[in-house]
Design brief:
Elements (H helix, E strand, L loop, with lengths): L7 H10 L26 E5 L2 E4 L4 E4 L2 H4 L8 H13 L9 H12 L5 E5 L2 H16 L3 E5 L6 H4 L10 H4 L2 E3 L5 H10 L4 E6 L11 H11 L3 E5 L12 H5 L5 E4 L10 E5 L1 H4 L15 H16 L2 H22 L6 E6 L2 E6 L7 H14 L2 E2 L3 E3 L6 H24 L2 H4 L13
Parallel strand pairs: 3-13, 5-6, 5-7, 7-8, 8-9
Antiparallel strand pairs: 1-2, 2-3, 4-10, 9-10, 11-12, 12-14
Helix pairs in contact: 3-12, 4-12, 8-9, 13-15, 14-15
Length: about 425
């Protein structure tokens, strides 16, 4: 029996951090709400390539990759060199730096819908900017949403995490189900002539049904609304030009973040020139919008995407993970509890209630065991260019060990007794 990993320093840091930081971190998805206490790390000390080391010295193959923001791998040599070179000249200035235009030009060359570009820092900046732009362009207020679009009032008010959002704001946002064009059409008809935009993640847990993305564009335009693709995750991951390039559907506006700069904080609103020109009239302006280190990282990242087989490698590694995980689930007879879905570059190990156990009980045991074996994941496989074939083999070897263990616990009704921690409690469902 392998010795149990210690997370003592992580837990001590968490207790310290929670005295001055709500939840002990800046991001819900990195907090103790997502990682079961007593069997999880809470603080990472360093990372390189596909690997991360927590403050207790435990090593992991990282399949979270900073919430899918790292596409090339941690501390990519080309990106780090570009940032160091820019740092010698400065970080932020009293006037724009030429790199703003250089990165904007690269994006316009790579992304089908991009004729003009404005930068933000987070995905929420970009999606909120796109919605304000759509409202200004159409003179309308209502928005139809499908997917997760960030923390700002206009979107988060439509979720269970709406505390603090005015009811008047919440009333303007309407959710519809993915791959359900009829549901969107009912919304648009119910408030005819009032929708400014239809904003969607072009894909997430499941792929778009044939004609779904095309239908979104047709319906939006028929009702005088703009189509916005939230490509915060899919951009520069699914294809160099994002999901819109992969699926051949060009939206009016699109938003990017995460992988745009291999983890450096920058996002972008891009789109049709006639719409983007209104950026001169609405207010979308940041002191750090043109921060040069992140733009240097973005420039190096985009150039590497064009120069090397990054996306092809992500797809190859991700496809091996999907096929291998599906085979293990099938061989273990666990199709009632587990399934695999999503794009190879961003796939999901879906967990369901099964055999008297809840999905969160099963997920907690799964996380307890994979973390002990050096795999960092919360149920997604966010692949990076740095992941090797050996990393994929190791992940699948862990699954081949852990999933049968979970199957035995389910069959014998001993899953709860197998836990060395409390069961995770869901925060809220974003997709």
């Amino acid at each position: 029996m392998r010795p149990l990993r210690s997370f003592a320093r992580s837990e001590a840091y968490l207790a310290r951090a929670e005295r001055t930081i709500p939840l002990g971190t800046q991001t819900f998805s990195k907090s103790r709400t997502q990682y079961p206490h007593g069997v999880s790390p809470y603080f990472i000390q360093r990372a390189q390539g596909s690997r991360a080391w927590d403050v207790d010295g435990n090593e992991y193959i990282d399949f979270v990759n900073s919430l899918a923001s790292v596409t090339l791998g941690y501390n990519d040599s080309d990106v780090t060199a570009a940032v160091r070179e820019q740092l010698a000249d400065g970080v932020i200035f009293s006037l724009p730096h030429p790199i703003e235009a250089e990165v904007a030009e690269l994006i316009c060359e790579m992304v089908p819908c991009a004729e003009m570009v404005r930068f933000g820092k987070n995905g929420s900046d970009a999606t909120s900017g796109a919605i304000r732009l759509a409202r200004a362009y159409t003179g309308r207020d209502r928005v139809a949403v499908c997917g997760y679009h960030g923390w700002q009032d206009w979107y988060i008010g439509s979720t269970a995490r709406h505390r603090g959002v005015p009811q008047a704001t919440r009333d303007l946002t309407h959710s519809f189900a993915y791959n359900d064009l009829a549901a969107l059409e009912r919304l648009l008809e119910q408030h005819r002539g009032q929708f400014a935009a239809v904003i969607v993640e072009p894909t997430n847990v499941v792929a778009p049904a044939p004609g779904f993305l095309e239908g979104l564009k047709t319906l939006a335009h028929r009702h005088g609304a703009l189509l916005v693709f939230d490509e915060t995750i899919t951009g520069f991951r699914f294809a160099n030009g994002g999901a819109q390039e992969l699926y051949g559907v060009t939206p009016d506006l699109a938003t990017f973040g995460k992988g745009l700069a291999n983890g450096y904080p920058v996002s972008a609103v891009v789109g049709r020139r006639d719409v983007m020109r209104l950026m001169e009239e609405i207010f979308f302006s940041f002191t750090f919008g043109g921060e040069a280190l992140s733009l240097a990282a973005a420039k190096a990242t985009l150039q590497k995407l064009r120069r090397e087989p990054v996306v092809q490698t992500l797809r190859a590694r991700g496809q091996a993970i999907k096929e291998g995980a599906e085979r293990i689930v099938r061989e273990c007879g666990l199709e009632d509890a587990f399934s695999v879905s999503g794009d190879p570059t961003w796939s999901f190990l879906n967990i369901r209630d099964a055999r008297g156990a809840t999905s969160f009980e099963i997920k907690t045991l799964w996380m307890q065991e994979i973390l002990q074996r050096g795999i960092l994941s919360v149920g997604t496989h966010n692949v990076s260019y740095a992941h090797s074939e050996a990393d994929v083999r190791q992940l699948l070897a862990v699954y081949a060990e852990v999933l049968p263990m979970i199957g035995r616990a389910l069959d014998t009704g001993t899953l709860r007794q197998s836990l060395r921690c409390d069961v995770l409690v869901p925060l809220f469902k974003v997709r």
